[in-house]
Specification:
Structural class: mainly alpha
Number of helices: 19
CATH architecture of the largest domain: Orthogonal Bundle
CATH topology of the largest domain: Cytochrome p450
Oligomer: single chain
Number of domains: 2
Radius of gyration: 29 Å
Shape: globular
Strand order of the largest sheet: 4-12-9
Distance between the termini: 112 Å
CATH superfamily of the largest domain: Cytochrome P450
Number of strands: 12
Largest sheet: 3 strands, antiparallel
CATH class of the largest domain: Mainly Alpha
C-alpha cells in the first residue's frame, strides 16, 4: 500500500504534465491560427464591404483598398501626386480614400481649389485639420489654436504689420549672410581657396538653410549649440504622426515638446528684458508684434509673441528652404538658364570695374529671368503637396466638379512637370495665358509688394495656397538665388527625386551640387 500510494502521485503528475503540454500546444496552434486568419478575414470583409454593400449615390467614389484602417495610406505617403493622378483617371476630380481610419475626400483641379479654399471656414475648417500638427510646435493661443471668430483679427494684425519696410531691409541682410556663409562654411572651402578652376560640392539642403530674415534670430541658438532643435521640432517631422494619431506616447513627441519649450523660453526672456529696459534692440519683428493690439485695446501676451516668432522661424524658414533647394538644383541642371540668370545680374548690377553692386528690394522685383525661375520652381515644387480642411457638416459638391461626364476626358500633359522658366516669359505662352485667365476687372490679380499674382481661389497656380503670404517667399528666394549665382557656377547630373516622407516636400539624397568660383578676388 505504501508503495502504491507513493506511486499514484507520480503517475498523476505525469498525466497532468502531458495534458498541460497538449493544452499548451493546442493554445499555441490556436493563437497562430488566429494571428493568421483574423487579418485575412478582416481583409476579406473589407473587400466584400467595398464590392458588395451598395453605397449611397450621393457619396463620392471610394478608392479601392485591401487593408482595413490603413486604407491607401502607403500609396499616398510614398507618392501623393502619383496616387492622386491615378485616382483621377478612374474616378474624376472628386474621390474619397481611407487614410488610417479616416475618410479623406480629394477635390482636384481649379474648381477643386475654389471649392475647398473658397468655402465658408465655419463649414470647411482649417483649424480642425491642422491644430493637431501645428499646436504642439507653435503652442497655444496662436495660429490655429484660437477661436475662429478671433483668428481673422489676429492674422490681419500679423500680416499687415508694415511688412514692406522689413522686407526692404532684409534684402541686404540676406545678401550679406549668404556671402558670409559661402566665405566661412566648410562645404565651400574650394571657393575660399580663390581658385577659379577647381570644383567643390555642397549639400543643397545644408548649404543654404538658415539664410533668411529669421536666420539672425538663430545665432543665439547656434551659440548655445541648440541649432539641432529646429530639425527636432519641425523639419524632423517628429509631430507628423500626430496629424492622424494624436497623443501617442512617443519619444519624438517628447523631444519636440522639450525643444519647443526651450525656444519659447528664449524668446520670452528677450521680451521681458526689453520691457524692463535691460536690453537695447533695433526695431525688429519682436518689437512690431509687441505693438499690436486687438480692437478692444488688448495687446499680445508675451507667450503669444514668443509662439508667433517660432511660427515665423519654422513655417517661413523651411518652406523657403525647400523651394530654394529645388531652384538651385534645377539651375545646376540647366546651364543655359543659370547663365541667363547671371547675365541678368551683370546687366542690372554690373559696375565699371567688373564687380556687382548690392541689390535693393525695388530692383529685385524688376528682374524677369529671376521672376520666371521662382515662378516655375513654385509651380513644379509647391512646398506642401496637400492642402487640408476638416468638413464639419455635409456639403454638396457642384455638379461641374463631382463627375467628369460621359463625354469629357481628363488628360495630364506629358510635360506638366518639366521645369521650364521660359514658359513665363512668353506673353502668348500657355503659362501666361493660364495665369491671365484668373484676372478680371474686379481685381482678381493683386500686387502684395512683389509682383502681381493671382489671388483667385480658382487659380491653378497656388504654391502657398490662396493667401497673401507668398510675397515674403519671393523676396527670400530671389535674394538667395541671385547671390549664389553671382558667386559660383553650378552643376549636377540629374535633379533628385521627391522625398514625400517629410511634411515639407524635400529632395532625396544624394543632392550635392558641384560648384566652381566665377571670379578670383
Amino acid at each position: 500500500m505504501t508503495s502504491l500510494n507513493a506511486s499514484l502521485p507520480l503517475a498523476g503528475s505525469g498525466y497532468s504534465a502531458e495534458a498541460h503540454a497538449q493544452i499548451s500546444g493546442m493554445a499555441a496552434r490556436t493563437v497562430i491560427l488566429l494571428l493568421v486568419n483574423i487579418p485575412v478575414l478582416a481583409i476579406l470583409l473589407n473587400v466584400a464591404r467595398q464590392l458588395v454593400i451598395p453605397r449611397r449615390k450621393t457619396d463620392p467614389p471610394i478608392v479601392f483598398h485591401w487593408l482595413p484602417f490603413v486604407g491607401s495610406a502607403i500609396a499616398y505617403g510614398n507618392n501623393p501626386l502619383k496616387f492622386f493622378f491615378e485616382c483621377r483617371e478612374k474616378h474624376g476630380d472628386v474621390f474619397t480614400f481611407i487614410l488610417l481610419g479616416r475618410h479623406v475626400t480629394v477635390a482636384l483641379g481649379p474648381r477643386g481649389n475654389s471649392f475647398i479654399l473658397g468655402g465658408k471656414s465655419i463649414t470647411i475648417n482649417a483649424e480642425d485639420a491642422y491644430t493637431p500638427l501645428t499646436t504642439p510646435v507653435f503652442r497655444r493661443d496662436v495660429i490655429y489654436d484660437v477661436p475662429t471668430v478671433e483668428r481673422p483679427a489676429l492674422m490681419k494684425r500679423f500680416c499687415c504689420m508694415n511688412f514692406s519696410s522689413h522686407l526692404r531691409a532684409y534684402v541686404g541682410m540676406i545678401e550679406e549672410e549668404v556671402e558670409d556663409y559661402i566665405n566661412k562654411e566648410s562645404s565651400f572651402r574650394t571657393f575660399q581657396t580663390n581658385d577659379i578652376e577647381q570644383w567643390g560640392q555642397f549639400d543643397v539642403i545644408q548649404g543654404h538653410a538658415g539664410n533668411s530674415p529669421s536666420s539672425r534670430l538663430q545665432e543665439p541658438f547656434r551659440a548655445r549649440r541648440n541649432s539641432h532643435r529646429y530639425t527636432t521640432t519641425w523639419m524632423g517631422d517628429s509631430r507628423l504622426p500626430n496629424l492622424m494619431l494624436p497623443n501617442l506616447p512617443l519619444e519624438s513627441y517628447r523631444k519636440c515638446d522639450r525643444a519647443q519649450k526651450k525656444m519659447s523660453d528664449f524668446y520670452v526672456d528677450i521680451i521681458r528684458k526689453r520691457k524692463t529696459g535691460h536690453s537695447e534692440a533695433e526695431h525688429d519683428m519682436i518689437s512690431t508684434l509687441l505693438e499690436q493690439t486687438y480692437r478692444d485695446g488688448e495687446g499680445l501676451k508675451d507667450h503669444q509673441v514668443a509662439h508667433l516668432m517660432i511660427a515665423l522661424l519654422m513655417a517661413g524658414q523651411h518652406t523657403s528652404s525647400a523651394s530654394g533647394s529645388w531652384a538651385l538644383l534645377h539651375l545646376a541642371h540647366n546651364k543655359d538658364i543659370a547663365d541667363a540668370l547671371y547675365r541678368e545680374q551683370v546687366q542690372h548690377f554690373g559696375t565699371s570695374d567688373g564687380a556687382l553692386r548690392p541689390m535693393t528690394y525695388e530692383e529685385l522685383r524688376a528682374l524677369p529671368v529671376l521672376d520666371s525661375v521662382i515662378r516655375e520652381t513654385l509651380r513644379v515644387h509647391p512646398p506642401i503637396h496637400s492642402i487640408m480642411r476638416h468638413v464639419r457638416e455635409d456639403i454638396a459638391v457642384p455638379g461641374t466638379l463631382s463627375n467628369p461626364g460621359k463625354d469629357k476626358t481628363y488628360i495630364i500633359s506629358k510635360g506638366n512637370f518639366e521645369w521650364d522658366p521660359s514658359r513665363w516669359s512668353d506673353p502668348e505662352g500657355v503659362a501666361a495665358q493660364a495665369f491671365n485667365t484668373y484676372v478680371d476687372d474686379k481685381g482678381e490679380k493683386i500686387d502684395y509688394g512683389f509682383g502681381a499674382v493671382s489671388k483667385g481661389t480658382e487659380s491653378p497656380y497656388q504654391p502657398f495656397g490662396a493667401g497673401k503670404h507668398r510675397f515674403c517667399a519671393y523676396m527670400q528666394l530671389g535674394t538667395l538665388l541671385a547671390t549664389v549665382i553671382r558667386k559660383v557656377e553650378l552643376r549636377i547630373d540629374a535633379v533628385p527625386e521627391y522625398n514625400y516622407h517629410t511634411m515639407i516636400t524635400m529632395p532625396k539624397e544624394p543632392r550635392s551640387i558641384s560648384y566652381r568660383r566665377r571670379k578670383a578676388d
